[in-house]
User: Fold this.
Amino acid sequence: MGLKRYNHGFTLVEIMIVMVILTMLLGFAWQFYFGGRETMRHTVSQSQVQADTRIFLDQLEAEMTSCYAFFEADPEKKRLGFYSFTFSKLSLDDIYYDTSGNLRSTGTDSDARLMVARYEYEWKDGSVTKKRTPGWLYFLQKPMRFVQSNDNAFTNNYGPMQKVVLRDIEDFELKAYSQTPDMESETGTTIKLLTASQAENAAFIVLRLHTKKDEAPNRRDEELDIVTKFYSNIKLAEIANPGYFSSTDRDGRF
Assistant:
């Protein structure tokens, strides 16, 4: 008597169970792949935001180090402006004496001048624009007077320029402070928050940058908050040596 062979296939239930298991496995693999790719994208993008912001702050710090005086620090208009010394050669004799060897006047009509670069920063529509203008600062006049110059004495490093230096800036907050000697205080100085009209008296500013890049609904936004204090070394020297730091003496006592 011969044996009967039966061909057993998969039942509909078995096929459905296998499909569900495969779908779940593929879903987990898909989620893991795209989750890892999104994390990598976010990390790279966040690093780029940090690098761009750091480059901006490093450049501003270099300009601020040689800042002679602020002429604008307006929290409402989101604008910052200051005069910064250049590295072009200009001797003290050229500052204090005219071409005939006579001491320049120290009154409000003084023609004593400094070689400076005028820097202006403004936040508008999510971008920070930087403008640089080389020229002469008649620092003893009241108010100080700036005259733009294209003289060859100014190197290419200080040529006129205007460009956007930061993008995707959610907020640009700045505050200006004065710092004066005060031997009765614990720190030896008094620090005072200044209004926009008092910017010329500022010794340092505090700047907050809030960077935010809006991404798709299923992606994380790139956000970065940095608060930095920028001092004018020239102002600090005046504060530390009142009446003696003559090369920036705007009251004419040099």
Summary: The mean pLDDT is 80.
